[in-house]
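Example record

One chain of 101 residues, shown exactly as stored in the release files.
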Amino acid sequence: MIDIAYAAGGIPGGGAAGGFQALIPLLLMFAVFYFLLIRPQQKNQRQHREMLQSLKKGDHIVTAGGIHGTVEALTDTIVKVKIADNVKVDVSRSSIAGKVE
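Predicted structure tokens for this chain:
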């Protein structure tokens, strides 16, 4: 009976260090996700925000819907875009995908 008690004893070497070693792979995965996914996305968002702030009259733009046009007037949230002769539309600044060079 005592032999069974010794056989069911605790795991040798399983102390507080065992819990920390289990966190190392999780921390490494978070670091990989940060450098491969989160950081580049933040950089793209910053560049898009700077592009929207630098818009001025006469810039050629493309909207998220694929409409190409020229900026005619600007407000804080609305951009008036000329898409054809005598055709001007109001679009939200956030819907502008980029400048056309």
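Notes: The longest strand covers residues 68-74.
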